[in-house]
Write a structure and sequence with these properties.
99 residues, single chain, alpha+beta
Length: 99
């Protein structure tokens, strides 16, 4: 399936990269590698990750540094849409409604 990274998720990723960059070269590299691994896995097996318990419209995956990827599968379009990439310690519900 094709992966589509939506606007807020793109912003999230940019902010994460900038933040992790403050700690040297390796953290952003580790994050990118983990994100790429997620994309490869989910494109082959879109339902491998659980539904988000607070909003069943989303599936959720955990990647490097406890970041969470919130996504939806669109079978008709053959796409996986990534809505947000947020740290696990943030309150997610209002941030998901912003999309």
């Amino acid at each position: 399936m094709k992966i589509i990274i939506l606007g807020l998720a793109r912003d999230d990723i940019k902010e994460i990269q900038e933040y992790l960059g403050e700690f040297g070269e390796n953290p952003p590299k580790k994050f990118r590698a983990s994100f790429k691994k997620f994309c490869n896995q989910v494109s082959d097996m879109p339902y491998m990750f659980n539904q988000y318990e607070h909003n069943q419209n989303y599936r959720i995956a955990i990647i490097a540094f406890d970041y969470l990827i919130f996504y939806q599968v669109d079978e008709k379009k053959g796409t996986i849409q990534i809505y947000r990439v947020l740290h696990g310690k943030r309150i997610h519900e209002p941030l998901l409604e912003a999309e």
